[in-house]
User: Fold this.
Amino acid sequence: MAKRLLEQFGTAGDRELLLELADEQLREADGAIAELREQIRDRDESLEGLALDLGVAAEERAHALRRVEELEHHVLSLQGQLKAPDEFYAQERDEEPPATVARVSDVVEMAGKYLADRLVIHADALHDLDQLDAASTSAAWGQTSWEGFLALHAYASDRAAGWDGGGFWEWCQNSGNLRAWRATEKKLSMVESESINNSPKLRRTREFPVSTDIDPSGKIFMQAHLKIATGGGNLAPRIYFHFDARDCRTHVGFFGPHKWLPNTKT
Assistant:
C-alpha cells in the first residue's frame, strides 16, 4: 500500500511530504501506545490498592471479633468467680483458637490444632493452597477462610449441644452465635444450580472425599459451600462441606480455588 501511495506522487517533494505525514502518524501512534500503557499501569496500581484495602478491612474486622471474644471471656470469668470462686480457679481453661491467621495455608494447620473435635478436613480436600498463598489477596482470603471454618465448627458444636433450629443457613441467621457466617447468596450456597444437578459430568466434579464412616465409597456429592470471595476469578476460594447429624461433625471435602469447579459457563 505504501508503494502505491509513493507511485501516486511524482516529485521528490511530494514524496518527502508523504514521508513527513507518515512520520507524524507514527509519532501519534507511539503517543497513543504510551498513553494506553500508562492507563494499564494506573489500573494495576488501582487493583493493588484495592487488594491492600481488602486486607486492611479483613484485619480490622478480625480485630473487632477478637475484642468481642475477649470481652465475652472476661464476662464468663467474672461469672465463674462469683458463682464458685474455688472451683473456678482450680479449673484449667481450654486454649482458645486465634482470631486471625496470616495466610490461606495457615488455616488448615490452625483448624487441625483447635477445631478437630467438630471439624474434619479430609486430607484429599486441599487443592492449590500454595497458589492461594501467592495471590495478592492471600491475607484477606486466609482470614475469611478461617472465619468460615470457625463458623462450621461453631455450628457443629451448637448442634451437639442441642440446637435444632434448622440447617447451617438457619443457624447463621438465627442462632445469635458470634461466629455465624453471613447467610447471603453471595457468601453461602446450600445447593448447587439446577444445571449442575442435572449434569452427571458436572455433578462428578462435586463428589468430594469423606471418611468411609460417612459413605462406604469414600465420596459423596456435596452442594453446600462457603464462598470465600466473589471476586478473584478462577482463584476465588471455596469450601464445600457436609454436616453429619449422627456425630455432629462438619466434614470438609473441598478447600481450594474455584477453577476446580466447572459449571455450564466454563
In short: The first strand starts at residue 119 and ends at 121. The radius of gyration is 28 Å.
